[in-house]
Amino acid sequence: MPSSLSCPSSFSSFRIQKVFWPLIPVIGYRAVLGLSGYVISNVAFVFAALSLYRLSLVILKDPNASLRASVLFCFNPASIFYSSIYSESLYALLSIGGTYLLMSGVNNVPALLFALSGSVRSNGVLNAGYYGFKALHQSYYAMYVKKRPHLVLKVLLAGALRCICIFIPFLAFQAYGYYNICHGRNPEEMRPWCKAKIPLLYGFIQSHYWGVGFLQYFQLKQIPNFLLASPVLSLAFCSILSYWKADPENFFLLGFRTTLKKKYTPAFLFSGGEEPVRDDNHSAAKKEAINVRRRQKSISQDRSASPSKNQISVSGYHSAIVLPFVFHLSFMTATAFFVMHVQVATRFLSPSPPLYWFASYLMTSAGKSRLWAHLVWAYAASYILLGSLLFSNFYPFT
């Protein structure tokens, strides 16, 4: 039997339903949309924090530091975007969850999650860099350690296919835009981007309507926005600089000169952890795994000895396994500072794990740990308050 709730917001053409006025179903429809978006964002925020905790355990090998990093993420300066109907929470879940699975030894599922993250935000395609880093190191391992050059092609091909998978949503959306706006149109009516050799609607909108481009934002009137972004950019720069100072040679040589002992776990990212690189002789593979575990055990027993000034550690923020994350953060930081609207950096960099690992490291550093802890929490609290006031009133917070 028809009722007032069965009348859709588009004013159904069924005559029998014309006796029901449309306000209640319209309100219900809007409320469901808003509530569902709010629930999805906040649930994704919670699971993103859990994923960061698990990832931190794998990378840092320190439960306390992992917990601190996760708590910092829960109260990050861009929290207002994670608690509202915005793309940050879902992107963080897919991106961090994908890296957690990748660092745990899973091969294909992370590529799917990274591809989905590219469907949420365009910078999701940068996650392909993790597979690129992995493929390069496994190729090096196959060539110079395993002495099996024929395996290099298999490793590179597997990495390339997964990277292509990650790029598919971005490219498909650009093709969809071209088909709807440019396809079948008179050449005289086409916008300039339609006639480009590589017609990218995303880049055209960013540059033409929003003024995004290299050094385009370096104007005197944008100084307040640079000041607004300065805390997160400073934190990112210090985290990159701190990692670089730990071992400059390892940083600039992409980790190829780092020994397997220093790479610690998960060593599969650097060595033969993927199927194409594994030896066909399973007993040999098992023996090698046992040897790696023995080396790791000896490393953990000697960990009380303090490392030299320019020697990368085997665990914690300065471990070799953090290197691809630091490269990822470096590229995003440079993009935010030189290319984007710089105030967006606060939320643009917020899903990056090294920020929270480095902040957690500062809180326990010798000498000024209490001061750093107060500064980090003061920064987070002030931006949460500022963001809540500005964003909810439609001011350009980020």
Report on this model:
With 398 residues, the chain is mostly helical. The protein has one domain. It is 62% helix and 0% strand. The chain has 16 helices and no strands. α1 packs antiparallel against α2 and α9 runs antiparallel to α13. It starts with 22 loop residues before the first helix and ends in a 6-residue tail after the last helix. The N terminus is likely disordered.
- Count of structural domains: 1
- What's the oligomerization state? single chain
As a percent range, the share of helical residues equals 55-70%
Number of DSSP helices?
Answer: 16
Task: Write down the Rg.
Answer: 25 Å
Coarse morphology: globular
Tell me the span between the first and last alpha carbons: 50 Å
Low-confidence parts, pLDDT < 50 over ≥5 residues?
Answer: 1-5, 8-12, 273-292, 298-312
The strand count comes to: 0
Order of helices and strands: HHHHHHHHHHHHHHHH
Largest sheet: none
Enzyme class: transferase
Membrane topology: Multi-pass membrane protein
Family: Belongs to the PIGV family.
Organism: Spinacia oleracea (Spinach)
Give me some keywords for this one.
398 residues, mainly alpha, globular, disordered N terminus
Please outline what is shown here:
By secondary structure, the protein is mainly alpha-helical. It has helices spanning 23-60, 63-74, 79-82, 88-103, 109-120, 128-145, 150-181, 201-208, 223-246, 248-252, 260-263, 282-301, 323-338, 345-348, 353-363, 369-392. The protein has one domain.
